[in-house]
Amino acid sequence: MNRLEKYSATLLALPFTIVIALFFVLPLLLVVMVSFWDYTSYSIIPDFIFTNYEDIFYGCIGKLPDLCTAFSTYLSTIKFVFITWLVTLVIGFLVALFLAFCVRSLPMQVALFLLCTIPFWTSNVIRMISWIPLLGRNGLVNAGLMDVGIIDSPLEWLLYSEFAVIVAFVHLYTLFMVVPIFNSMMRIDRSLLEAAYDSGASTWQALTNVVIPLCRPGMIIGSIFVITIVMGDFLTIGVMGGQQIASVGKIINVEMQYLQFPAAAANAVILIITTLMIIFGMTRIVDVRKEL
What does the pLDDT look like over 65-109, one tens digit per residue? Predict the structure, then answer.
């Protein structure tokens, strides 16, 4: 009995460890291993070469300050990640703030929160495609703007553009920011806000000195969700960008279609390292584990 109690924590952690090992660590190790393999047009060859990594950034240093295709693609991907992260953070914070502090009734909070999740009852593809009738050349937005006389001809940049990609990203992933921020806000002791107001703090001072610092863990967790998803997303950029905008995810997808698995694995490893560096930098700002 004593021995069982001694190892109870290990036994409880065992199923989770097995799942993580089988579905995360092992596939990740396989990707890293394949990234060093060689390949031909019709086969991959077990080897240990750095050619796949060298080919990705071949000639990039010599072209500086001009950007090579690889640098341009990674910068384009990071640009989409940054803009999407910023917009979803602002929208997610405001939505969570409204639900947590402006809605007093718990049933109403639950109802409004479920209302936010309704679009997510459908697949990402359907939600993404739903923007096409709205943003198209003959879509509702262009028709409405022309009817009220704001524009004389349809706006071509509404669809199949960077704008359309960001709109779709924000629509698809804002809820991933709302949930953790809302959870952090609901855990804030309301007596702290009352103490701030009793001390003469304005609403803005209470927000910046009490609410925002205490919901930083939720903001960081939501940011990690959004950044990791957008970094590898290739479908949204392909559909909403009209297959005209480059991203690392699209490059990996194309290489896999042409059976260039080692090259795709090398790009995936670089993408994972880039993502981990961003997340590492964010966790240096806030120790999420300590503040949870």
Answer: 777 888 888 898 999 999 999 999 999 999 999 998 888 888 888
How far, CA to CA in Å, does 132 sit from each of 69, 161, 213, 232, 292? Answer: 29, 12, 39, 22, 40
Backbone region of residue 284 per phi and psi (left: phi > 0; alpha: psi in -120 to 50; beta: other values)? alpha
SS3 content of the chain, % helix, strand, coil (to 5): 75, 0, 25
Q: Of 98, 124, 125, 126, which Cα lies nearest the Cα of 113?
A: 98
153 φ/ψ angles, rounded to the nearest 5 degrees: -135, 155
Report how far residue 202's alpha carbon sits from residue 207's, in angstroms, rounded to the nearest whole number: 9
Which one-letter amino acid corresponds to residue 190? R
Contact 265, 273 (CB under 8 A): no
Residue pair 207/102 in contact by the 8 Å Cβ criterion:
no
Three-state secondary structure call for residue 1: coil
Each residue of 248-291: pLDDT tens digit?
A: 888 898 888 888 899 999 999 999 999 999 888 888 877 666 55
Q: What distance in Å separates the CA atoms of residue 274 and residue 277, rounded to the nearest whole number?
A: 5
What's the maximum distance between 2 C-alpha atoms anywhere in the chain? Answer: 81
Backbone angles phi, psi at 254, to 5 degrees: -65, -45
DSSP secondary-structure letter at 183? H
Q: What is residue 31's DSSP assignment?
A: H
What is the CB neighbour count within 10 angstroms for residue 274?
16
Residue with tokens 């994972």: 272
Cα–Cα distance measured from residue 231 to residue 275, given in angstroms and rounded to the nearest whole number = 7
**Could you tell me the sign of the dihedral formed by the alpha carbons of 151, 84, 76, 39, in that order?**
negative
E strands, 13-99, are 38-39, 44-45
CA distance 74 to 250: 11
